[in-house]
Automatic annotation (TrEMBL):
Protein known as: Adenylate kinase
Homology family: Belongs to the adenylate kinase family.
Keyword Nucleotide-binding: yes
Molecular function terms from GO: ATP binding; nucleobase-containing compound kinase activity
Superkingdom, taxonomy of origin: Eukaryota
Spans annotated as Disordered: 1-20
GO BP term, pick one: nucleobase-containing compound metabolic process
InterPro entries per UniProt: Adenylat/UMP-CMP_kin, Adenylat_kinase_CS, P-loop_NTPase
Entry annotated with the keyword Kinase: yes
Assigned keywords, A-Z: Kinase, Nucleotide-binding, Transferase
Length: 93
């Protein structure tokens, strides 16, 4: 999953969230981390419904704090046990 691709797809969808993201991105600002986390979460949960068993996530997290927030989410804990190291998460299962 690419966070950039997810952001661009949301903008392209024309949804209210996509329109807000477009404004932020056109101004050269960073998209709030919570929004990126929501997009990643939605994509992961949708993929799990379709039978996906693992993920490689590109572009998120960008810093350790984001990784810790991601790892602390209950929906992540219920699907995989993850380890953050440097610039990547590793599955420990």
């Amino acid at each position: 999953l690419s966070s950039g691709d997810l952001l661009r797809a949301e903008v392209k969808s024309g949804s209210p969230r996509g329109n807000e993201l477009n404004k932020i991105m056109e101004q050269g600002q960073l998209v709030p981390l919570e929004v990126v986390l929501d997009l990643v979460k939605e994509a992961m949960l949708e993929a799990v419904k379709k039978g996906t068993k693992g993920f490689l996530i590109d572009g998120y997290p960008r810093e350790v704090k984001q990784g810790e927030q991601f790892e602390s989410e209950s929906w992540v804990k219920s699907h995989k046990r993850l380890k953050y190291k440097g610039d990547a998460f590793f599955s420990l299962n």
